[in-house]
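Recall from the previous lesson that a structure prediction takes nothing but the amino acid sequence as input. Here we apply that procedure to Sugar ABC transporter substrate-binding protein from Paenibacillus agricola. The sequence below is the only information supplied.
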Amino acid sequence: MKRKLVTLMSLAVLSGGVLGCSTAQPSNTGAMAPKTEAAKTDAPKTDTAAKADPAAKAKIRVAWWGSQDRNDKTLKTIDLFMKKNPNIEVQSEFIGFDDYMNKVNTQAAGGNLPDVMQIHEGIINEYVSRNLLVDLNPFVTKGTINLKNVDAIYLPDKVDGKLWGINLGTNSATMVYDPALFAKAGVEELKPGYTYDDMANALRAIKAKLGNDFYGITLDNGYDGLKHYVRQSGTMFYSADGKKLGYTDDKVFVDYFTFWQKLMKEGLTPTPEVQSEFKQLENSLLVNGKAAIQPVFSNQIVALSTAAKRPLKMTVYPSLPNGKEGHFLKAAMSFAVTSGSKNQEAAAKLIDFFTNDVEGNDILAAERGIPVSSEIRKSVSAKVPETSKQMFSYIEIAQKYARESDPPSPAGDTEIRTLVSKIQEQINFGKLTPEEGAKQFRKDAESILAKNVKK
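The prediction returns the following tokens.
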């Protein structure tokens, strides 16, 4: 089957990002997906073309972001899907991470969203509020999407009891590190339970051994690291009703960015200028041997190790003395069916294939995170390379340092992610102090949340 590929941009993941997706999470200019009157329905649409002509193929488009490794594996999996489903033709759209939301928002405005789109938990409420997604429960009920081997804990993409996406892989925030650099510097590897001060001291010792052109840890992306730190303080990032920030004392914001500013002043993190030179995941400072640690999400260990061509390891985030646990298990990303799709049944079949097909998941090799099907987890874990097996063992460790997940992020979360990045950049360039940044963030973030509250 000839593959149609639209390559809009190669990976543009911030090398210091704690995103999965990332980790999962894409950034954008703050543009919101427009509200649409596209069918908001609980009943799956039929493939009208196929019904009119049994020989006609149902054509669907699917879009995702990610690393080149993810792109290659996804394309091979889609080829297998088309081989096993010759009546369905799939057009693939691989979009660079930073441009993903801008691109799909533009498509939404033109009524041209792909039939299947990769989403993250931060935009589910936003897209549901604009009637852009289809409830997948009817496809589950009729058996098009088989979830009999999927525990409910692996299906977080629910709003008002409806299922808006199927989790492509479970992950958690992690610190990926280069054990060879720790050994070279004669510094003991960080063990779960270590503190922020422990990490800073280890970085100082490594840099003292490896020289001035070495950075201990890459910059994080702001949002996910801050959210983790807020959770460690005992609160949630957003209030339960999603109308305001969940933490009331800005000290948590100030403390977090003050810590990173101290690391930067000591040369333990790169300046934003240096970081920008190593923007892509496959070309990060860690991959190039110029940093010992990189905060990401656990599924990204595969792409990082593949690019580095050497063993890398994972450990949990630092612990906050007298604090709460900050980790939680999350959907790395999900596949959703869009309300404007004319071939929703075919789109649902593709999602089922990614969820349950053994051969397909052998190709995917858990690159997006731990598979949600218990049967696929057993199959994949027995076959994947040692690097990928780390994801499975890491999730067990992360659970020990985790507590309950936050509720689904409210509409406006995508804008707030972008806001965090902008304020972080201003702090890094010395245009704002952490205290000024905290005030500006609260003002702007709560303004964004207020305008997105359902009337």
